[in-house]
Amino acid sequence: MNKTDQMSFFGFEADAAAMAPSNAAQTAMPQVASPAAVTPLSVHAAVAPPEAMTRSAPTDPEAMAQTLAQHPDFRVLRRLVPRSDYGPVSGQAPQRVIVLDTETTGLDSKSEKIIELAMLSVLVDTATGLPVGPVTIYESFEDPGKPIPAQITEITGIDDSMVKGLRIDDAAVTALVAQADLVVAHNAGFDRPFVEARFPVFASKAWGCSFQGVDWKKEGSGSAKLEFLASERGWFYDAHRAQVDCHALLQVLASPLADGQTGLMRLLAGAGQTRYKLRATGAPFESKDKLKARGYRWDGEGRVWWCSLGSDALLDAECAWLRDEVYSRRSARVMLEALNSLVQYSSRSGLQTERQL
Question: How does pLDDT run across 102-151, given as a tens digit for each residue?
Fold first, then answer.
């Protein structure tokens, strides 16, 4: 379902995920040919093609794509091909990761329902951060017990006739999730409350968010939207359905980041870290511009500015900044909420304490 209404950690739009259904629950996607799409990099007067292009006019699509890729005014995108097997399992003891996506009747997990669930379960080599071995696929529709809103059908293509009388297999989901070391979703703050409300097994698992858990802006990306991230890596795909979005996310996270580490490895490493929600209680009104510029968000219900921090070191540094820049070295106490991977991105609260600045 459309998740663009969700607030972003880095200021990007949240990603609306999606894909075409399959009736089989744990099936493998076959390998298919990879047609290419061509995207001009700039709009200007027509440029004469290189002599090599006019001298030999290939008719094979891949040959044409390779020829165009050599021209500085074009970049070539290839259709993303779902992978059913990532090769032999080797190296250090692998960890099992589930990549998950949902389609729902709306944004509020307390009142709306899941209409489609897709999961990819794969081992990740902890030495390389790369997927290894076969991919187990689960996908299913579920009847929400009420009409699917027209705007949801427009976005996802899922209508009432496609889900009528269907139910996600609780036993199959529980068995697959029970094996996982980490569950990953792009905007886990949206998906986790929905699946936890429907399947209790998810509450006992560590979660990672590929939207918030990787600083895509720092990595040089212009957006954290999944389609954009895939495009930067040379792929396009038919979005707005759950399973293809899972395949796209898995391949994006298997690609190297700026430091050579994969996104999968970054998320696995982050699963052992505690995040903190820091509330600047009693902050002077005149400090609001400083807090906003620093990246704090306003909680209208709690009437407090807050931010999220990914480590103890960042927490210590932020408390020092608050003491000097916001509270002017006056005595102050701030509220902390510790969120480990078993709690973060869920609707459940973490351990709450006060800290003297």
Answer: 999 999 999 999 999 999 999 999 999 999 999 999 999 999 999 999 99
- CA 138 – CA 215 distance, rounded (Å): 29
Average pLDDT over residues 269-273: 89
Q: Pairing state of beta strands 182-185 and 95-104? A: parallel
Phi, psi of 116 (to 5 degrees): -155, 135
Structure tokens at 345: 């991105």
3-state secondary structure of 198: helix
What tokens were used for 238?
């038919």
> For residue 6, how many other CB atoms are within 10 A of its CB?
16
List beta partners, residue 335: 279, 354
Please state the φ and ψ torsions of residue 168, each to the nearest 5 degrees.
-65, 140
Distance CA 270, CA 255 (A): 17
What tokens does 322 get?
């608050």
User: Tokens standing for 146?
Assistant: 């009420």
Pick from 4, 245, 238, 235: which is nearest to 116 by CA?
245
pLDDT digits (tens, 9 = 90+) for 191-244: 999 999 999 999 999 999 999 899 999 999 999 999 999 999 999 998 778 999
Strand ranges (E), the chain: 36-40, 74-79, 95-104, 114-124, 131-141, 182-185, 207-209, 235-236, 275-279, 297-299, 304-309, 333-339, 351-356
Q: Is the pTM of this model over 0.70?
A: yes
Give the burial string for 197-234 (b: 16+ CB within 10 Å, else e). bbbebbeebbbbbbbbbbebeeeebebbbbbebbbbee
Where helices occur in the chain by DSSP H, the ranges are 51-55, 61-69, 150-156, 160-163, 170-178, 188-198, 226-232, 242-253, 263-270, 288-294, 312-321
Tell me if 96 sits within 8 A of 131, measured CB to CB: no
